[in-house]
Amino acid sequence: MDKLVNYRKLIQNILTDYHEWVSGSSNQNSESCLVFDEKHDHYMWIDLGWQGKKRTKNTQVHIRIKDNKIWIEEDWTEEGIANELLKLNVPASDIVLAFHPPEDRKYTDFAIA
C-alpha cells in the first residue's frame, strides 16, 4: 500500500475511534464532528456547541499531510496522536509536532519539518 494512502487511512481510523468514543458519552454538551479532506490532506475532529447564547467550536485534533509527513497541528487528546501513530508503526521521522514552534522541534524525538 502506498505510504500516503496508508497514512490517510490510519489518521481517519484514529480520529473515528475518538469521535465514536466521545459520541457515546451520556454527558456530552456538544456535538463531535469529523472533517476529512483527502484532496488537501486535512483531517479534523472538532466539537460544536453552545454556551448560553455563544456558539462554541473547539478543535480537538487537526492533522495534515505535507511533504510526505504527518503534521500534527493541534492535539488535545490525553494519549497523544503521535503516540497512537507510533503504535501503528509510523516512524517518528515521518511525524511533525507542528504545534511546537519550529525552533523547539529539535528537542523532540520527532521530525523537525
Tell me about this structure:
This is XisI protein. There is one protein chain. 25% of the residues lie in helices and 35% in strands. It has one domain: 2-Layer Sandwich (TATA-Binding Protein), CATH 3.30.310.110. With 113 residues, it is an alpha+beta fold. A hairpin with a 2-residue loop joins strand 3 and strand 4. It has a five-stranded mixed sheet. The model has no long low-confidence stretch (mean pLDDT 94).
List the topology elements.
Layout: H1 3-23, E1 30-37, E2 42-51, E3 54-66, E4 69-75, H2 81-87, E5 95-96
Parallel strand pairs: 4-5
Antiparallel strand pairs: 1-2, 2-3, 3-4
CATH-derived architecture:
2-Layer Sandwich
Rg over C-alpha atoms, rounded to the nearest angstrom: 15 Å
Strand order of the largest sheet: 1-2-3-4-5
Looking at CATH, the homologous superfamily is XisI-like
Q: What is the CATH class designation? A: Alpha Beta
In terms of quaternary structure, the protein is single chain
Reading the helices and strands in chain order gives: HEEEEHE
Q: If helices are DSSP runs of H or I spanning 4 or more residues, what is the number of helices?
A: 2
Tell me the structural class: alpha+beta
Descriptive terms for the model:
single chain; 5 strands; about 25% helix; XisI protein; XisI; XisI-like_sf
